[in-house]
Fold this sequence. Notes:
3-stranded antiparallel beta sheet
Amino acid sequence: MLTLVPFALYSIAAVLIVRAALRGEESSPKLALLAALLAVISHSWLLFGVIRHEQGYALTIADSASLVGWVIGATTLIALPFAGLRAIPAVLLVLAGLLGLRADWPRAFREVVPPAWELKAHIALSMLAFGWLAIGAVLVVLCAIADRRLRKRQPLGWTRILPSLERMERLLFAALAWGFVALSASLFTGLFFVHDPRAQHLSHLLTLSAAAWALFAVLLYGRWRWGWRGRKALRFTLGGFGALALAYFGSKFVLEVVLGRHWG
């Protein structure tokens, strides 16, 4: 039941932001900022209590999903005071709340991570990368929907509470750039403890992560060199994010749930 507290606070903040956007306000109301702050604090407290272990940190698939949700929620909280975001923070806060609901699920398998700085840095960077690239995936879908309506000259409908397409594209590539930097650092820190990928059950993780890194690298270069946007951005972003999701959550699901094993 405790997971409902951050979810409820995230939802309250999202509702307040949508109401403000419907009124044509460019900035999020202060009450929404307070609700989002309390949501992130309660989410942090819940997560720390769940993953903290005597021998280090115990991470399951549910814990990892909740950590990604926390990154999305905390990033959105930092961005809330800036004007011009309109209803985008509402979408992201709801996503953070939904991912946060997975915290404190029954733990049939607990992979205890020793408190070595290399592993802690790798896990932190991995979660940052996944969270920021998840924000990019959400934004590219919103951009595609808005672009489609504009091209077909359809009524804006609910997309009228979103920022302009140009503004969303700038936010999209900012999220992708930060996510790419974190992903690069995550792969680098992984070199400190990956000695035998097969023995450590990391072959698929490394291959898919490298594929995701390559897709995002090509997209960002294409954006810088040729101004890529639209369908190219959609395909590369969703392809890279899908590869990254399979790399971590897919591999972890097979190991934990199907095989009853763990990395390392």
